[in-house]
Amino acid sequence: MKFVPAGVVPFVALLLLQRRPVAGRALLLSGSGCPGHGLCRSNVQEQTRRQVALLNATAQELFSLYLKCQGEPFSSESDKLCNPAGIFFPAFRVNRTSERKEVMVAMYKLFAFLNASLGNITRDQEELNPMAKELLERLHNTTKTTRGLISNLTCLLCKNYNIFQVDVRYGDSSKGKSAFKKKQQGCQVLRKYVQVIGLAARVLLPHLSPS
Ligand SMILES: *[C@@H]1O[C@H](CO)[C@@H](O)[C@H](O)[C@H]1NC(C)=O
Ligand SMILES: *[C@@H]1O[C@H](CO)[C@@H](O)[C@H](O)[C@H]1NC(C)=O
Ligand SMILES: *[C@@H]1O[C@H](CO)[C@@H](O)[C@H](O)[C@H]1NC(C)=O
Ligand SMILES: *[C@@H]1O[C@H](CO)[C@@H](O)[C@H](O)[C@H]1NC(C)=O
Ligand SMILES: *[C@@H]1O[C@H](CO)[C@@H](O)[C@H](O)[C@H]1NC(C)=O
Ligand SMILES: *[C@@H]1O[C@H](CO)[C@@H](O)[C@H](O)[C@H]1NC(C)=O
């Protein structure tokens, strides 16, 4: 049995995140930067499956609860106000026949973006709806699962493809925006997330089936 030193994974995750977005272009570099063996736990594939399935299973409830907690006009006009057409969200153009490597990279970009977005949404909700305990708890849980997933994807990318650097494009920070804009940005992101996580689950899960 191999012992995995606790410091290794966060170090790699940090490496991955240090490259800032280049105006929407994704640049992949692979080389010799992956740490040696022992980075991944033996059940990493199974963990990844479970995390994606859990996020998919809880996304809709998170969105519905989010809407409910924003009050009017969000609860009654969500179709209009939460239309995600105008926001940046990572493209997710992979499908079942895409190469596994492409799928993993697209997943990484998606969940790194989601983690940053959840950070903004949580900060805003703590300020705007501090009494919405269940919403805050769901946001924390989703963030925690997302971070675990990112660390597992980091390890799979390194181990299987020697990819240790992925350029991620992030959305706009909501800092300094009006309360209305903060609520709106959160609902646009979460609504799009519900759509994309369903697709991600359909595409990724078959790629991770026990083989
Ligand atoms: C699946 O994605 C690949 C690129 O990853 C693309 O070339 C192919 O046309 C797509 N297939 C379908 C059925 O959409
Ligand atoms: C997640 O986002 C937070 C900002 O909210 C950032 O500090 C952290 O490094 C990110 N973690 C990962 C694994 O991307
Ligand atoms: C808010 O979002 C921006 C852009 O995605 C990101 O850089 C920043 O870390 C996020 N802030 C928090 C507190 O997560
Ligand atoms: C958050 O996660 C904890 C631990 O897994 C769980 O007990 C709790 O029910 C979750 N809360 C919500 C609102 O989903
Ligand atoms: C993978 O996910 C599990 C469950 O969240 C977590 O305990 C583990 O630290 C993650 N990362 C790796 C590299 O196994
Ligand atoms: C994703 O979640 C939806 C809603 O809970 C569910 O209907 C669907 O079967 C899930 N997809 C996968 C691939 O698990």
Automatic annotation (TrEMBL):
The residue range of the signal peptide is 1-24
Q: Which Gene3D superfamilies match?
A: 1.20.1250.10
**Per UniProt, which keywords does this protein have?**
Cytokine, Secreted, Signal
Instruction: List the Pfam families hit by this protein, alphabetically.
Output: LIF_OSM (PF01291)
* Cell compartment(s), UniProt: Secreted
Q: Name one GO biological process term.
A: negative regulation of meiotic nuclear division
| A molecular function (GO) term | growth factor activity
One GO cellular-component annotation of the UniProt record comes to: cytosol
Q: According to its UniProt entry, what is the function of this protein?
A: LIF has the capacity to induce terminal differentiation in leukemic cells. Its activities include the induction of hematopoietic differentiation in normal and myeloid leukemia cells, the induction of neuronal cell differentiation, and the stimulation of acute-phase protein synthesis in hepatocytes.
Protein's recorded name: Leukemia inhibitory factor
Q: What is the lineage of its organism?
A: Eukaryota, Metazoa, Chordata, Craniata, Vertebrata
